Model the fold of this input.
Amino acid sequence: MTRKRPSWVSHMTLRQLILLAASVSAVLALIFVDGRSTVEPIGEVEETTQEVAMPSVSSADMLATSWFCPGVPGNDDGINSAIAIANPSDAEISATVTLLSSGQAPISSSVSVPARSKTLVDARGGISSTFISALVEILGSVGTVEQLIGHPAGSVVTLCANRPSAEWYFADGFTGADSIEQIVLTNPFSDATVVDISFVTSETERTPANLQGFVIPPQSVITLSMDEQGARNEPVLAVSVRASSGMLIAGRSQHYLGQGRLGYSMSLGASALSTQWSFPDGEKIEGNSEQLVIYNPTKIDRSLSVVFVNGSDSANSLEPAVVTAPAGRVTVLNTANIPGLPSGYYGIVISTNDLVDGGGVVVEQVVNRRVGNSVGTSVLLGAPTGAASTLWSAPSGVSAGLVDSLVVLNATPVEGFVTVSQVGPAGTVALSGLESIPVPASGVVVVAVPAGLPQSEIVIQSTVQVVVQRLLSRGNDLVGRAAVLALPHLPSPDVGK
Done:
């Protein structure tokens, strides 16, 4: 079944369609290719070219895939964690899981994942460390990997990266009310990685001397508590990590303790700037608040267009919001201040208007969902340029039984149809009632996945390019949702060359 959409989710104005079509064209035309060389990691991890600045599945990855997970808390027995490895193929696959920590040698183990199934692996493996990261190397087929954390302040699912990067960015950081923000830096390689770390608060940009030329030892995990780096009680806190030697994985752990935010989140950083960011689940619902946090780490001011994919008719149309993102600063857009934005669900597409020198920024969405005196905070890094796809998967599954398990954004001017399937013993089978769900042109659809399903991999197929987001139960009867994108399946970078 699908949630009934408000009456305004039907058609867009001609101006909005033209702007959105231009944005989609930019998605298809602008790609990120990183030509840096790397040192050799543990084992035989194969370096591949990645076109999109987010985790994805490439059609080139038929013989081996590697996944780098950003880390789980490793010194609190009240926090449960796991690595989910999904195998949608018809043959068993083998994986090597290597756990990395601080001051300890890596621990590797072998795992077999039967055909058409999902396996959970202990993400701590008996190690005690502030944070523990995992490298999962899969041989024999395409397997996908995600990281799960069961935290008393809210359970979360986090995407794992396909590859390391020499740069990582986080737009939304928060240490207000003594909230805890930790940047988790993982070096999976046999040589040291050297990074320069800077951060931006509401008042200034800081480059602490002790974080310049900062060394991450080989095959190790380093955790930086931002309050100890001079960023205590900051409502705005963006972070840049740039490697001058080597590459790494960067994640951000946040435990919100007040000033309008409560809960826990663990996020993979943005591995590159992007000229466009898409968010399927925009919400203007009573009790909720929503912010778009824009970080411009470049030296050039950026002009951005914010298009709300709300399907309003000409009598209730929304002109795109134009926002200036000053160089080296953070800009916060509170969507409640957008004149005429109707209540309900909508998609959001943020694009740079100036394409000089790439014109990229980083954008995250913060939603605080309130019920009575309780709040649940979620933070989502949007889908960057090139991520829209006709095939998405959720390796660890979805929260079945929720009325908003999945949100699908169709940012094209053509109506599409979405089918939601589950991987099981009989293969990939469409879920009853979730076949060929209409997704309006330049619109969104909210999908309720039926209760009682096994917690296995979910596959979302569409007739047009879409972006898919999951809204997950936070567990422990906590209010709100955890937010995470699904994994897009993209063509090989060599296709068309």
The radius of gyration is 21 Å. Confidence is low (pLDDT under 50) at residues 1-50. Helices lie at 14-29.
